């Protein structure tokens, strides 16, 4: 378990970038935290760490954004507006989740518990402490239905 505190958006991006450099292909990263805690900001950093130069935008309405880099893809999912898991299955999430040339980053993973159950994930939790202060923890675990 790793524990960090950031006090600016830029710091959260840098931390994401650092962790992004250590990601292995096939990894599933789940981002937990309230609205406005910094999940998308952190994702932008991770994408940079992977070497992606494209501008990362929030998939709040698109559900899933795909960024190709080299032979690989970064899948960025935000389930905030998802009504049920079926909608993600319909747009092909299973073609990507945990596949060897793909990294998947998921905001609001609790909405797709069944799809993640028993999968190995890197869990990032962002806690909104203050206006600009965020506590960020990272750990690796097997996701289990609760
Ligand atoms: N330390 C910090 N880390 C990340 N974001 C911060 C921080 N301090 C303030 N912010 C602000 O909080 C907001 C985070 O937004 P965003 O990343 O879209 O959150 P989420 O995706 O969790 O809803 C941004 O407006 C950002 O400028
Ligand atoms: Mg977001």
List descriptors.
146 residues, single chain, alpha/beta, 23% helix, seven-stranded mixed β-sheet, 4 helices
How does this structure look, described?
This protein is of the alpha/beta class and 146 residues long. Strand 4 (72-78), helix 3 and strand 5 form a beta-alpha-beta unit. Strands 1-7-6-2-5-4-3 form a 7-stranded mixed sheet. It is built from 4 helices and 7 strands; from the N terminus they run βαβαββαβαββ. The chain starts with a strand and ends with a strand. Magnesium ion (MG) binds next to helix 2.
Mean pLDDT, all residues: 96
Largest sheet: 7 strands, mixed
**Got a strand count?**
7
Strand fraction equals 25-35%
Helix content: 10-25%
The gyration radius over C-alpha positions equals 14 Å
Ordered list of secondary-structure elements with their pairings:
Layout: E1 2-6, H1 9-21, E2 28-32, H2 39-49, E3 64-69, E4 72-78, H3 85-90, E5 102-107, H4 113-116, E6 120-128, E7 134-142
Parallel strand pairs: 2-5, 2-6, 4-5
Antiparallel strand pairs: 1-7, 3-4, 6-7
Helix pairs in contact: 1-2
The chain binds adenosine-5'-diphosphate and magnesium ion.
């Amino acid at each position: 378990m790793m524990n960090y505190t950031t006090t600016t958006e830029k710091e959260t991006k840098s931390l994401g970038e650092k962790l992004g450099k250590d990601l292995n292909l096939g990894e599933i990263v789940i981002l937990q935290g309230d609205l406005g805690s910094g999940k998308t900001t952190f994702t932008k950093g991770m994408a940079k760490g992977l070497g992606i130069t494209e501008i990362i935008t929030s998939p709040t309405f698109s559900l899933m954004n795909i960024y190709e880099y080299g032979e690989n893809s970064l899948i960025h999912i935000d389930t905030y507006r998802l009504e049920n898991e079926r909608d993600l299955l319909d747009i092909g999430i299973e073609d990507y989740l945990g596949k060897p040339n793909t990294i998947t980053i998921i905001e609001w993973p609790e909405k797709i518990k069944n799809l993640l159950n028993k999968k190995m994930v890197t869990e990032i939790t962002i806690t909104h402490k203050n206006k600009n202060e965020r506590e960020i923890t990272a750990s690796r675990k097997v996701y289990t239905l609760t």
